[in-house]
């Protein structure tokens, strides 16, 4: 199975260590909102782009783990892709960790095959992770936020508390049952509707904020569009 190894700073039990994390599975969870109204808003938002409703909610898409990257730049085909900020669960060394990433997706391809659209683009992730046990007691207060730079203007693109998303235990159980998430797996946890609608950007910045322990994980990347010759 093709995988990838990323170098990350892992915060756990009051300390931090830099270490390689090897991942051989990547799962993109979709339509994971706890609030059916908010979830349906995101579904309607995608339907406006011609993207069909999911067969189930939540739904889990398998993507090559080699698509994960901590780079500050990605290349995409044409101008029909966009980012989505999501929390990212990682099972490594027997521990469940959480970070933040962008489920960058080709929206044109998404109108006819969602799984392929997910596979089309790299998935940028911040090179930093927290131990889930350290944030479990205040999980719902964690915040996701994203900014898009469009035509030189940086705008707030997405924002919301994780109280709006399925909690890790529920998200994992619906996919893996009592067995739990396998070692070497990364799972994107879903996203919020875009403020002002889904659109492409020249740059995408995102963050996971912990207001209780007063810390934040940030990352961002430039989007380089490749010419489609035909």
UniProtKB/TrEMBL annotation:
Protein name, entry field: DUF2848 domain-containing protein
Q: What is the lineage of its organism?
A: Bacteria, Pseudomonadati, Pseudomonadota, Alphaproteobacteria, Hyphomicrobiales
**Protein's organism:** Bradyrhizobium aeschynomenes
Q: Which InterPro entries match?
A: DUF2848, Fumarylacetoacetase_C_sf
Q: Which domain of life is it from?
A: Bacteria
A family per Pfam? DUF2848
């Amino acid at each position: 199975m093709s995988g990838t190894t990323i170098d990350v700073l892992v915060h756990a039990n009051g300390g931090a260590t830099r270490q390689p994390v090897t991942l051989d599975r990547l799962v993109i969870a979709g339509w994971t909102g706890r609030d059916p109204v908010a979830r349906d808003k995101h579904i309607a938002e995608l339907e406006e782009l011609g993207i069909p409703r999911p067969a189930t909610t939540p739904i889990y898409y398998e993507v090559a783990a080699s698509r994960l990257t901590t780079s500050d730049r990605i290349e995409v085909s044409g101008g029909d892709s966009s980012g989505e900020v999501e929390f990212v669960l990682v099972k490594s060394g027997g521990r469940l960790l959480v970070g933040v990433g962008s489920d960058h997706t080709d929206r044109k391809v998404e109108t006819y095959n969602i799984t392929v659209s997910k596979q089309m683009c790299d998935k940028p992730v911040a090179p930093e992770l927290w131990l889930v046990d350290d944030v479990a007691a205040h999980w719902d207060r964690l915040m996701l936020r994203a900014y898009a730079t469009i035509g030189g203007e940086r705008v707030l693109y997405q924002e919301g508390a994780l109280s709006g998303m399925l909690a890790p235990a529920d998200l994992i159980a619906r996919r893996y049952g009592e067995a739990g998430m396998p070692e070497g797996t990364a799972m994107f946890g879903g996203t919020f509707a875009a403020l002002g609608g889904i659109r492409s950007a020249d740059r995408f910045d995102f963050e996971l904020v912990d207001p209780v322990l007063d810390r934040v994980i940030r990352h961002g990347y430039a989007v380089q569009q490749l010419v489609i010759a035909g």
